[in-house]
């Protein structure tokens, strides 16, 4: 086996890793760069649930892992600002963060060749309507590629990165890193070993355990971040069309009256499908939609998540969220569960009979059940309040036939403490994207990748 030595190894081939590689190559044409990825090449990423309509628990989930990362099959909504999708604006200042988000947009413009993406502008009328109902609409311009166009754009970008000499290694799942003189030694589950002077950790949310192991091994302190737990909500598309036709993706915050907790409605998919994803054996709900009209459904879906920030002495927020999702899988016989809102409010489980008569036809084959047996009272109460609050601006949201899929959760819980504003963890090891705890979306993850590439080559 020949020894593979690189100037920079990027662990994780999502948008963060790809943008970092792209920028490094442009700035330093002679740099020897590799991207190592736990999952498959983009064109070979196939989720069997597409055929079966249910998750078959693949060892490596093709939805979350593989080149182009968690966003590969996403709707391709690129937030052209810092209002949401992460806290890069707080870290770098809005001007610098926006400059890097613009850079991501420039790369998209270059490689998006299968259609002209639509840009949705912010809307005062809807913002006012929300304010009048104690809701806060998070508003900024959004570029929408759609699933197919996003996939093609990512493939074009990957082709360009490969053509420029960067080496791509699919099925390279990095298990540990050690230091030997001037080099880091990266060990992979397939027995391969790579050496690198610089490492960029771009492992996204699915690489949370890798990041925490790395931080423990190199004594990088971690601070507690928040987690978001809740449900994926599905209803007739027409209910949210006033919003989706004007701003495409409503993202709305609500402060609940009972607990004064922050709940957010986000990840909206017009005409979309609810999907299941496998996070290390735990099946959670998500959603996506296609750009082409023939692939649209009659439904829309979005997440409603309640934010929790734990305080001392508890320091295992990810495990907490995972255990809640595990409970849903236990009740759902290894699957996510689905419940009609009307059944939830009446305190009864949804069964196949009632689901079969529902006017909203589920787009994911989930197990009919009872979400109140899974979610803690505080979270469930927050979600119910939020649904009633949203019903005021989009009447019909709180209909009996609205479907709730449990659980959906987002973990931002382990957030390493950076050595400096280059997002360096230890000398020459940088972290970017969702795995850093800073980003929650494509644009900011990509922007952070470009920013760190500039730091490595010396521009920042
Ligand atoms: C269904 C879905 C729809 C979404 N839709 C949108 C959207 O429309 N707009 C938006 O802004 N955001 C969206 N998001 C969020 C967005 O995809 C993420 O914010 C973004 O992908 C984060 O990029 P990243 O590069 O940090 O990580 P990721 O995209 O998660 O990529 C990380 C990669 O690292 C790999 N990896 C992990 N650990 C290891 C390891 N130890 N060794 C090797 N490789 C490893 C993983 O396999 C993965 O491919 C969506 C997410 C999902 C799941």
Q: What do these coordinates show?
A:
This protein has 460 residues and is an alpha+beta fold. The protein has two domains: 4-118 and 141-223 and 415-457, FAD/NAD(P)-binding domain (3-Layer(bba) Sandwich), CATH 3.50.50.60; 226-411, no CATH class. The protein has 13 helices and 23 strands. Helix 1 links the parallel strand 1 and strand 2 (33-36). The two termini are 37 Å apart. The chain binds flavin-adenine dinucleotide. Residues 11-17, 36-39, 64-66, 69-71, 74-77, 79, 85, 172-174, 202-207, 210, 286, 288, 433-435, 439-443, 445 line the site of flavin-adenine dinucleotide (FAD).
- Stretches with pLDDT under 50, minimum 5 residues: none
Small molecules (ligands, ions, cofactors) in the structure: flavin-adenine dinucleotide
Distance between the termini: 37 Å
User: What shape does the CA trace take?
Assistant: globular
In DSSP terms (H or I, runs of 4 or more residues), the helix count works out at 13
Roughly what fraction of the amino acids lie in strands?
25-35%
| Overall radius of gyration | 21 Å
The average pLDDT is: 93
Number of strands: 23
Q: Label the CATH architecture of the largest domain.
A: 3-Layer(bba) Sandwich
CATH topology of the largest domain: FAD/NAD(P)-binding domain
> Which class of secondary structure composition applies to the elements?
alpha+beta
CATH homologous superfamily grouping of the largest domain? FAD/NAD(P)-binding domain
Report on the biggest sheet: 8 strands, mixed
Helix content: 25-40%
Q: Briefly, what CATH class of the largest domain?
A: Alpha Beta
- How many structural domains does the protein architecture include? 2
């Amino acid at each position: 086996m020949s020894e593979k030595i690189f100037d920079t190894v990027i662990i994780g081939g999502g948008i963060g890793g790809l943008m970092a590689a792209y920028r490094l190559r442009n700035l330093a044409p002679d740099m020897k760069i590799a991207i190592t990825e736990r999952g498959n090449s983009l064109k070979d990423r196939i989720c069997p649930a597409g055929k079966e309509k249910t998750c078959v628990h693949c060892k490596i989930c093709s939805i979350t892992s593989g080149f182009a990362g968690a966003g590969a099959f996403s709707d391709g909504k690129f937030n052209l600002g810092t209002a949401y999708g992460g806290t890069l604006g707080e870290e770098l200042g809005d001007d610098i963060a926006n400059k890097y988000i613009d850079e991501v947009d420039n790369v998209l413009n270059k490689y998006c060749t299968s259609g002209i993406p639509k840009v949705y502008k912010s809307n005062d009328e809807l913002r006012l309507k929300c304010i009048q109902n104690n809701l806060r609409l998070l508003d900024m311009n959004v570029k929408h590629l759609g699933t197919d166009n996003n996939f093609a754009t990512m493939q074009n970008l990957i082709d360009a990165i490969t053509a420029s000499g960067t080496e791509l290694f699919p099925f390279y799942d990095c298990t540990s890193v050690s230091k030997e003189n001037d080099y880091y030694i990266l060990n992979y589950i397939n027995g391969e070993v790579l050496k690198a002077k610089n490492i960029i950790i771009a492992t996204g949310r699915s690489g949370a355990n890798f990041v925490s192991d790395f931080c423990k091994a190199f004594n990088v302190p971690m601070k507690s971040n928040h987690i978001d737990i809740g449900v994926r909500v599905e209803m007739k598309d027409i209910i949210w069309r006033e919003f989706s036709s004007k701003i495409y993706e409503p993202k709305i915050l609500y402060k609940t009256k009972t607990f004064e907790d922050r709940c957010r409605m986000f990840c909206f998919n017009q005409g979309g499908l609810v999907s299941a994803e496998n996070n290390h054996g735990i099946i959670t709900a998500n959603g996506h939609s296609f750009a082409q009209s023939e692939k649209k459904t009659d439904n829309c879906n979005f997440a409603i998540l309640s934010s929790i920030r734990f305080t001392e002495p508890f320091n295992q927020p990810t495990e907490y969220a995972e255990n809640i999702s595990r409970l849903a899988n236990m009740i759902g016989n290894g699957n996510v569960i689905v419940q009609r809102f009307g059944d939830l409010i009446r305190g009864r489980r949804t069964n196949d009979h009632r689901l079969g008569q529902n006017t909203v036809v589920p787009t994911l084959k989930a197990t009919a059940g009872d979400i109140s047996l899974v979610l803690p009272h505080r979270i469930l109460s927050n979600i119910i309040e939020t649904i009633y609050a949203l019903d005021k601006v989009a009447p019909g949201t709180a209909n009996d036939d609205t479907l709730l899929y449990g659980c959906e959760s987002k973990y931002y819980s382990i957030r390493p403490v950076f050595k400096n504003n280059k997002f360096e963890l230890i000398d020459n090891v940088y972290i970017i994207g969702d795995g850093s705890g800073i980003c929650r979306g494509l644009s900011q993850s990509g922007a952070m990748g470009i920013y760190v590439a500039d730091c490595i080559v010396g521009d920042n």
